[in-house]
């Protein structure tokens, strides 16, 4: 549609040209680099941090020793940052991967099956689970498996399975009903070739966009659980746990809270920006035809 | 329309039944029960066994579920293992603060998000749209608890303008208690919701029937409120039901930070002390609330745009 760029309510107007427009044009080009840096820094800290040797000997609480001072337990904040990312980001990544392994398979099978009952059998139960508040499920799990990173990761994954399955199913159905698949079928291509060769690839676009937003959501969820004390033990070096533990000392020693908070926010913000671009790129054509 | 409502309500009943089984199953699957958790250090194995018998924990799961479900249906949620009082009291005492918090937040979120969403949607890719989009995108990337921690530090600890906790405060005499918690809850919900309304508005504005209406000379205001808004609201209303999830997460965090004696605090406490009857009851109540919210959202969408039932 041609009228997309203008104010869609009034008649098309000539686009304003001026210095501000040029500034925006420049600004719009920055985010890719910026968001890569935003995502990259926390990711590097999380992955390489534990390998960097650092002083773990506790000192005075909220002192100005070391690069970023110490926290409420007298631990070096910089040292905590280096080891805290593994759980903060790792649990979220693990959960999303697991959610896609389970939900993705359910969605693909439901979409590609020729038996309606199998589709119903796979998707209906998920409809029942969909409205369950995620933190609720996790707190129930937390009753039994306290401080277990694995249990929390699995719980976060399970919470995401229904949405992932539905998304993958919808995307796959979309692709499976296209003329291309019709043509492939008429050429007597095998089921596997059609599913993996065409449908699977067509699903990748929406999936990539969804993974972007889902990872930030998972990071949020994991962080909230840990912040609330339902997840990891209160002395764990995790970023969210550090924020929770040191929040009273924010004014005494701001870095003990702000440093892990900044890393978390940088990561989610960067991922949001990347996902937003991806969504725009993949959804645009669909929106126009819808 | 009526048959859609009936079908959707039937689904909700099924969901409810499955949910109660799930809640029970999840909580009884947990390793270790109340009897051996609380007393293994002080009691001999025989005493633990007797306690288990007393609590009815030695019976098969199906029987325990039947017993529990029968009680729930009659409004009896059981007895707390920690306080020894009825769970219903805990639910009643904690629900008020949470309701006030949620309703106050929603009362601001909904109008604000709809206004922002329409504002952005009608100016797609304009300067205003891009500015607000960037702000909402950035804001929605900040976890609730980070916002809360920073706001408390600045406005309570540093400036001393607003109370940092609800301890010793009474909501009726000092409504100012609500300011910081609601501000924290607003952040992400407004962002998520307004983005959905924006997307809905843009999609609707590009629809053929809007082009046609414009061609027929329907006045701008009428076009916006009569034709665009109902259709644009659909993703918004659905998002609102999902916002319930975000909101609940936010409420948990906010209640923990501001020491608000609400539902979430009760839940976290019960999880910490492994007070299973309380966890079961609170989980059930919250799950039912979430279900009803979803039901309401779907029915509203169907009412706004009857064909949305077909699209599902």
UniProtKB/TrEMBL annotation, chain A:
The chain crosses the membrane at residues 32-52, 88-109, 121-143, 149-168, 211-232, 252-275. One of its GO terms (biological process) is transmembrane transport. GO terms for cellular component: plasma membrane. It is a multi-pass membrane protein. It is found in: Cell membrane. Keywords: Cell membrane, Membrane, Transmembrane, Transmembrane helix, Transport. Residues 85-275 form the ABC transmembrane type-1 domain. Its main location: membrane. Belongs to the binding-protein-dependent transport system permease family. This is ABC transporter permease.
From TrEMBL, chain B:
Keywords: Cell membrane, Membrane, Transmembrane, Transmembrane helix, Transport. The keyword Transport applies. GO terms for cellular component: plasma membrane. One of its GO terms (biological process) is transmembrane transport. Gene3D superfamilies: MetI-like. The chain crosses the membrane at residues 95-120, 132-155, 175-193, 247-266, 278-297. Belongs to the binding-protein-dependent transport system permease family. It comes from Kribbella sandramycini. Its main location: membrane. Pfam families: BPD_transp_1, BPD_transp_1_N. It is a multi-pass membrane protein. This is ABC transporter permease.
């Amino acid at each position: 549609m041609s009228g997309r760029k203008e104010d869609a309510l009034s008649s098309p107007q000539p686009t304003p040209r001026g210095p501000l427009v040029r500034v925006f044009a420049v600004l719009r080009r920055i985010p890719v680099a910026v968001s890569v840096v935003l995502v990259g820094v926390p990711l590097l800290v999380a992955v390489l941090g534990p390998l960097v040797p650092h002083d773990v000997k506790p000192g005075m609480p909220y002192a100005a020793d070391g690069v970023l001072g110490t926290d409420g337990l007298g631990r070096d904040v910089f040292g905590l940052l280096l080891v805290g990312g593994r759980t903060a980001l790792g649990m979220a990544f693990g959960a999303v991967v697991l959610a896609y392994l389970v939900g993705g398979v359910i969605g693909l099978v439901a979409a590609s099956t020729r038996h309606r009952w199998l589709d119903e059998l796979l998707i209906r139960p998920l409809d029942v689970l969909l409205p369950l508040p995620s933190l609720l499920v996790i707190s129930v799990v937390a009753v039994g498996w306290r401080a277990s990173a694995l249990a929390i990761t699995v719980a976060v994954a399970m919470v995401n399975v229904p949405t992932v399955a539905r998304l993958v199913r919808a995307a796959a159905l979309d692709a499976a009903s296209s003329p291309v698949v019709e043509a492939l079928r008429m050429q007597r291509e095998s089921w596997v070739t059609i599913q993996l060769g065409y449908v699977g690839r067509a699903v990748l676009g929406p999936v990539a966009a969804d993974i972007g937003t889902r990872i930030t959501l998972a990071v949020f969820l994991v962080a909230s659980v840990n912040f609330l004390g339902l997840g990891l033990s209160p002395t764990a070096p995790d970023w969210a746990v550090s924020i929770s533990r040191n929040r009273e000392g924010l004014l005494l020693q701001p870095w003990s809270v702000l440093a892990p908070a900044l890393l978390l926010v940088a990561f989610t913000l960067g991922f949001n920006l990347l996902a937003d671009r991806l969504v725009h790129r993949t959804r645009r054509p669909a929106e126009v035809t819808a | 329309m009526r048959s859609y409502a009936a079908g959707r309500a039937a689904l909700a009943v099924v969901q409810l039944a499955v949910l109660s089984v799930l809640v029970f199953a999840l909580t009884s699957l947990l390793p270790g029960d109340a009897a051996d958790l609380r007393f293994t250090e002080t009691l001999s194995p025989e005493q633990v066994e007797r306690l288990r018998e007393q609590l009815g924990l030695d019976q098969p799961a199906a029987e325990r579920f039947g017993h529990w479900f029968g009680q729930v249906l009659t409004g009896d949620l059981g007895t707390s293992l920690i306080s020894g009082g009825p769970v219903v009291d805990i639910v009643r005492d904690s629900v008020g603060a949470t309701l006030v918090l949620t309703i106050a937040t929603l009362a601001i979120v909904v109008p604000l998000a709809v206004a922002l969403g329409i504002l952005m949607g009608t100016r797609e890719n304009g300067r205003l749209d891009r500015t607000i989009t960037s702000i909402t995108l950035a804001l929605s990337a900040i976890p609730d608890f980070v916002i809360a921690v920073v706001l408390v530090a600045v406005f309570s600890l540093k400036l001393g303008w607003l109370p940092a906790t609800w301890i010793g405060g009474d909501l009726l005499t000092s409504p100012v208690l609500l300011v910081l918690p609601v501000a924290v809850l607003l952040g992400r919900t407004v962002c998520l919701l307004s983005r959905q309304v924006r997307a809905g508005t843009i999609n609707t504005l590009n629809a053929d029937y809007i082009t046609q209406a414009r061609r027929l000379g329907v006045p701008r205001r009428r076009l916006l409120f009569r034709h665009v808004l109902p259709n644009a609201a659909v993703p918004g209303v659905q998002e609102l039901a999902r916002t319930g999830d975000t909101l609940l997460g936010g409420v948990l965090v906010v209640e923990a930070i501001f020491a608000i004696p609400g539902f979430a605090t009760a839940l976290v406490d019960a999880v910490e002390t492994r007070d299973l009857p309380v966890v079961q009851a609170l989980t059930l109540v919250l799950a039912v609330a979430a279900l009803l919210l979803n039901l309401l959202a779907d029915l509203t969408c169907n009412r706004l745009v009857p064909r949305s039932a077909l699209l599902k």
